[in-house]
Amino acid sequence: MLPRSRVFSALLVGLGVALMVAGLLTPKLIHADPRIPLEPADVTLRLVDPEAKTRLLSDGRILTSPVTRQIHVQLQDPASADNVTENVGVSLLRDSYQEDRDRLISATVWNLNLDRGSAEIQEPLTVRDQLVGPSTSAPEALGALWMHFPLHPEKRAYPVLDDTLRAPVTAEFIGEEEHDGRQVMHYRQDIKAQNVHEHYQNFFTSTEIDGEELFLFHSGTRDLYVDAATGVIINIEEDVHDFYGTKDAKPREDVLKFRGELTEEAVAQRLAHAAELPKAETVKIWGWALLGIGAVLTLLALVGAFRGRV
């Protein structure tokens, strides 16, 4: 029968080797690297302007009323360690006493595939106007970011999708801020007046007023506040002016004047969500700790085993 010291040393070697293997595998099995999290599966963001100006489709009147821009992000299958499919619904809705058909300003549903590492939009990419027709492709959006930034976003410009243009607009890095103890990166899209009809065509992108053909133009600024550790978008501030104008961008009729942002409560929820996500640094530390402890135990066990033979 083996001496107890030899048995104990053998068990200690097994434990040490197991800890070293766990330390080596931890960073690979726990994805706390630059990946879009798969939880929560549903997120709804609401930007509200209490005094937005919008144009009625029925008669062209301009209304001043509260308007909510809602973005609903739903993660779907297929999803893997590298990619995830998203369904994104975007709508503009008046909070007024108009009939339902006049309260809804616009609504689109997007289906896209994202690279969970870079957060870039991949194929397939389709968009459907709920008011005017079937799904169409949006090829200009490929390669852009949208509702996600990569882990540890850099202090540089990123191409970020503008869903009205269905094309990327550069988001320039503005600076860093602190929100509830977390570092937040500030990016800004400066959208010069662009002819939407030149990007795609539907019922809204052109019209005729008093015998003159006019085109939908989209302009404004969008400020994106992104958690520096996780890439989670903490807040969105939009100041949008859409109008019908001539080919040379001379305004004729306002379509939308909207200045909205997330509520303080929503911002707090986004910060809390970012704080709950696993950190790559923590996972790496645990991996190295397990590897170190396992190596020490194995070494001690081997030393004890050899001493037992003397």
UniProtKB/TrEMBL annotation:
Keyword set, alphabetical order: Membrane, Transmembrane, Transmembrane helix
InterPro entries, A to Z: PorA (IPR021424)
Transmembrane segments: 285-306
One Pfam family hit: PorA
Protein name in UniProt: DUF3068 domain-containing protein
Origin species: Corynebacterium spheniscorum
